[in-house]
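thread: overnight batch results

M.L. [08:02]
morning all. the overnight job finished for the chain we discussed friday. pasting input first so we're all looking at the same thing
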Amino acid sequence: MRILLTNDDGVFAPGLRALRKELQRLGDVTVVAPAQEQSGVGHSISILTPLVVKTVDEEDGTTLGYMVEGSPADSVKLAILELMDRPPDLIVSGINAGANVGINVLYSGTVAAAIEGAFFKITSIAVSLELAEHFDYPHAAKQAVRVIEAILANKPDPGSLFNVNLPAHARGEPQGVQTVPMGIGRHGECFERRTDPRGRTYYWLSYAPPYNLEGERTDVSSLAEGFITVTPLHFDLTHRQQMNQVSGWTWPKL
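M.L. [08:03]
and the structure it wrote out:
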């Protein structure tokens, strides 16, 4: 099996290296990842600037992969169309430093890289680890690959897209694996107003977990309870339940 590994934390991120080591049990792993951290860039792509690509070596002189001066989506697109001699059988994005659950999925560069892979009809999986004071990436990578193996064993359709989130190791071993929908509750966002040394006002976005966990079980609530969450995603944003209603509206003659 040929596996493309990417992320949004940058090619030197420890989560990527830990996941690469475990994925090598499943097949040949090619790393193509951003040169710098790209958290929160979503599905941005570079149009007005060139994509500089460099090879990255391990300490022992072996090749780790490629770093791309661009976004996670750029990295996947470039890997498939230019850097790999044939498309991969599987794309994995991660391990991200911090969970990508709820509406954060829409901002996530980690998830965007997996979505880009799904565009090419390749099974793609985003993997993130809950925020903690200390990240145990080697342990998380072992858990992630076991979940990935289970996904592959069920032979998902080409282009299937999954978002996997792992609880922090500080919680103890996971309670299990739950397949849950993406939460859509608002996060506790606000801006902190500050003044820089030159007297200029600036704002820094702060973050708190979603404040409403009642109702349907979601990736947010299940992760908070210590479960590994698996959420099937798709990138078709059409509101199909509203299509018939909207198609019956009267439109102006232009």
